[in-house]
Amino acid sequence: MLTKKELSEQLASFLPACAVDYVVSFFFTYKVKFTISKSRKTKHGDYRAPYNGLPHQISVNGSLNQYHFLITTLHEFAHLITYEKYGSSVNAHGKEWKNTFKSLLLPILKMNEIPYEIRLALSEEIDNLKASTSGNTKLYKAINAFNAQHVSLFYLTDVPVEQPFILNGKTFKKVKLRRTRYLCTELNTNRSYLIPKIALVEVI
C-alpha cells in the first residue's frame, strides 16, 4: 500500500494543492480501489460497491480540471460512505447520499485557495445537490470556466435559436427549450435530440 506521501504525490497534479491532504485522508479511512480513467463522454466518475471479495471501487476521469476532479471524487466517496452506513437499502442519489455529499463538500467552502466563483456557486447549490454535477447549473458553469478549452466553447443555453453548432462531431441547430434540455435537430439526418441546456458546444 502507498504511503500518504506517495499517494499525495500521485494525486497532486489532479487536485487543488489545498485539497490533497483532505482527499488522501479518505484512502486511509476506507478500503477502496481508486482508478484515474481516460475521458468518458457519458460520466465523469463511477462507484461500485464491494462484491466477490473485491473492495469499494471508484474511478474518476483524469481529463477533468482540478476542481471538477475534486468535486467528482467527493461525489463518489459520498456513495462509498453512504453504502458503508446503509448498505444497498437506500436510493443511489437519495437523501442519505445528498446529506453525505454535502458534509464532504462543506470543508471546501473554507478553502480560500479554491476560486471564489466555485465556492459561491457551491454554497448556493449545496442544499439542492443533483445526481450529476451538470445538474447544478451555477456550479457546473463555475467549474468549467477553468477548462483550458472553455474559451472556444459556449453553453447551449447561450446559443441563439436556429444557430448551428457542433457537439460530439455532429452538427445541430437549437429549436426550443423543454425543461432542462433543448430540442435540437441534427442537420445531416434531420433527427431530433434532447441536449442539456448547459452542454458545452462549438458554435459555427
How would you describe this protein?
By secondary structure, this protein is of the alpha+beta class. It folds into 2 domains: 4-150; 153-203, SH3 type barrels (Roll). The chain has 6 helices and 9 strands. The strands form 2 sheets. Strands 4-9-5-6-7-8 form a 6-stranded antiparallel β-sheet, with no helix packed on it. β7 and β8 (192-196) form a beta hairpin. α1 (4-11) crosses α2 (20-27). The longest helix is centred in the middle third of the chain and has 21 residues, at 66-86.
E-strand count:
9
Number of helices: 6
Please summarize the sheet with the most strands.
Answer: 6 strands, antiparallel
What Rg do the Cα atoms give?
18 Å
- Contiguous low-pLDDT stretches (5 residues minimum) are none
How much helix, percentage-wise, in residues? Answer: 25-40%
Outline of this structure?
This protein has helices spanning 4-11, 20-27, 66-86, 95-105, 116-125, 137-144, and strands at 32-37, 45-48, 56-61, 154-155, 164-167, 170-178, 181-186, 192-196, 200-203. By secondary structure, it is α+β, with helices and mostly antiparallel strands. A hairpin with a 7-residue loop joins strand 2 (45-48) and strand 3.
Tell me the layout of helices and strands.
Elements: H1 4-11, H2 20-27, E1 32-37, E2 45-48, E3 56-61, H3 66-86, H4 95-105, H5 116-125, H6 137-144, E4 154-155, E5 164-167, E6 170-178, E7 181-186, E8 192-196, E9 200-203
Parallel strand pairs: 1-3
Antiparallel strand pairs: 2-3, 4-9, 5-6, 5-9, 6-7, 7-8
Task: Fill in the keyword field for this structure.
globular; six-stranded antiparallel beta sheet; SH3 type barrels; single chain; 2 domains; alpha+beta; three-stranded mixed beta sheet; 32% helix; 204 residues; 9 strands
